[in-house]
Amino acid sequence: MKCRVAFFCGLSDTLGQMLNDTSSLRTYFETRRSGRPRDMVAPGPNEDELSAILALAARTPDHGKLVPYRFVIVGDDQREALADLFAAAVRDVDPEVRQAKLEKVCAKAHYAPSLVVLISSPIRDHKIPVWEQELAAGAVGMNLLHAAHAYDYVGAWITGDQAYAPAVTEAFCKDGERIAGYFFLGSPSADLVERERPDMDAIVTRWRPPTA
Asked: How does pLDDT run across 82-103, given as a tens digit for each residue?
């Protein structure tokens, strides 16, 4: 498998376990871990694998079957154009931006072997609330990561300023759409590292009906 073993686990119970262990569905969910885009290297999904990954991602709850999302694949030969777009977006905000910051932002466009941009495209004025449609797009994003891991790659879901800058959104989105995230897919160049997970006692409660 391409996904690596964790060498540090913090407060997790996965010490000594492989992260993204796909030997069973349960072990996968117990060990699921995103990778760092800047640490991803080849190989990434080939064309057939990427098509299959996106098809799996689309198998998600979707109230009303509206399909309020779409995928945009950024090809290898388009990465430099994306970097130029990121640079233009930074200059729109800060015309005097330092070269070091500009280079750091532009580098993001070249992360990982494969890059998919997930677009949230809700249907406005529909009986299904926009919020629910946006939740569907979010579910697709999570499924996209699961699907990448099912193919023994590692994935990451990133937003940041580049997901909201007008110069970038205008290049990807139609009216009423938003960038839900950049999805970087590839193989990890180093062992994945577990991170601290939520304290379940702090976020799980039992409902108490209101008293009269």
From this structure: 999 999 999 999 999 999 999 9
Helix (H) or strand (E) holding 74: strand 69-74
Sequence spans of domains, the chain: 42-187
Residue 112's DSSP bridge partners are none
Tokens of 160: 């940041």
Closest by CA to 183, choosing from 130, 117, 129, is: 117
Does residue 140 contact residue 58 with C-beta atoms inside 8 Å?
Answer: yes
Among left, alpha and beta (phi > 0; psi -120 to 50; other), residue 181 is left
Per-residue 3-state assignment (H helix, E strand, C coil) for 65-131: CCCCEEEEEECHHHHHHHHHHHHHHHHHHCCCCCHHHHHHHHHHHHCCCEEEEEEECCCCCCCCCHH
Give the architecture (CATH level 2) of 42-187: 3-Layer(aba) Sandwich (3.40)
Residues 158-212: tens digit of each pLDDT? 999 999 999 999 999 999 999 999 999 999 999 999 999 999 999 999 999 999 7
Where are the extended beta strands (E) located within 79-177? 114-120, 154-158
Report whether 50 contacts 183 (CB < 8 A): no
pLDDT at 57 over 50: yes
